[in-house]
Amino acid sequence: MNAPANRRGPGLAVIIGLLCFLGFLALLFYGVRQSGRGDREALPSPLIGKPAPEFSLPLLHEPGRLVTSKDLLGTPYVLNVWGSWCPECRVEHPVLTRFALGKRVRVLGYNLKDEPEDALRWLEQFGNPYMLVMADRDGRAAIDWGIYGAPETFLVDAKGIVRWKHVGALDDDVIDDELLPLLGQVEAGK
């Protein structure tokens, strides 16, 4: 005669495995929530306080015309990295547009790894807040800037020194609490 099978349910090993999996999901959720809380100093830019990288990029609207880093010297500017393929760029676009309409500082677009027709169509659809848009179609110049993706935003002073970098979509709080105070310092020559 055969011994009766153990029929007590799923067993301790399965329950422990399920609890470990749920614990892992909880940690993952916590990590994702923490990364979205705006701790932008976690990846500080080595460019802060240093000259902006030298570059020569074509304009999106005039591909035959190049803009260089030297062309931008003389007045501060905000450089906003975006792409038509970037969902967060669409989120920040109304905020950036309101900021640019104030005309306190030049707002320049840096179109990253985009097809020109897609980028132009995106600006046509959502509006163009930029004084000019440079196109880095292959992303080579982005390496020197330390650009991880889009959106990212830089503040560069009149001497071409990078003063600030923000990774992720701009919102009103970031502009009010971070960008505007630094812009005030830049304008005061500090």
UniProtKB/TrEMBL annotation:
Mode of membrane association: Single-pass membrane protein
Keywords, comma-separated and alphabetical: Cytochrome c-type biogenesis, Disulfide bond, Membrane, Redox-active center, Transmembrane, Transmembrane helix
Transmembrane stretches, start-end: 12-32
Gene3D superfamilies given in the database record: Glutaredoxin (3.40.30.10)
Coiled coil: none
PROSITE patterns per record: THIOREDOXIN_2 (PS51352)
Origin: domain of life: Bacteria
Thioredoxin domain: residues covered: 46-188
Subcellular location: Cell inner membrane
PANTHER family, sorted: THIOL:DISULFIDE INTERCHANGE PROTEIN DSBE
NCBIfam families, per database record: dsbE
Family affiliation: Belongs to the thioredoxin family. DsbE subfamily.
Protein known as: DsbE family thiol:disulfide interchange protein
Source organism of this protein record: Luteimonas notoginsengisoli
